[in-house]
């Protein structure tokens, strides 16, 4: 139970990190997912899914480093603006810490475009393009971390039933965790209602 809570905290922190530049979003979510899988013997987990999530996590890191530069270039900023945005990411993190991921590319794109065109309006447009790229990149990262969080939530009920089979419900009835309804048999452990999660908590304590 404690490891499930720790995994959930990792994932919640990672979701915040997908928006807040001072936290590594997707790596934290992936770490929470892997921790939960490891502590539950990988019940119900797919190797393909984990591999895809690992690849997407690496992709989010690429977005953080190269996204502003590629976005500025894609939105018709000059080559120097794109280079400035890339250098801005590196110098921004070095000078301003994690917030430099946001500040650095904007200043770098502005400086690069202004050096290229000597036009402050074009420089401001390059900075705006970089900001748009940052927003789009953030949306992509949010989609990835929510997909991993959904995979985590989907597998929350599976461990008690898969680990203990039908016996976990028998124990629950014997220990009084849930009442037996008159004339009714044992409830299918494959069901995933809210009561199921409640019972699984009782059973985990009882076993």
From TrEMBL:
<keyword id="KW-0472">Membrane</keyword>
<keyword id="KW-1133">Transmembrane helix</keyword>
<feature type="transmembrane region" description="Helical">
    <location>
        <begin position="83"/>
        <end position="111"/>
    </location>
</feature>
<protein>
    <recommendedName>
        <fullName>DUF456 domain-containing protein</fullName>
    </recommendedName>
</protein>
<feature type="transmembrane region" description="Helical">
    <location>
        <begin position="131"/>
        <end position="153"/>
    </location>
</feature>
<dbReference type="Pfam" id="PF04306">
    <property type="entry name" value="DUF456"/>
</dbReference>
<dbReference type="InterPro" id="IPR007403">
    <property type="entry name" value="DUF456"/>
</dbReference>
<feature type="transmembrane region" description="Helical">
    <location>
        <begin position="47"/>
        <end position="71"/>
    </location>
</feature>
<keyword id="KW-0812">Transmembrane</keyword>
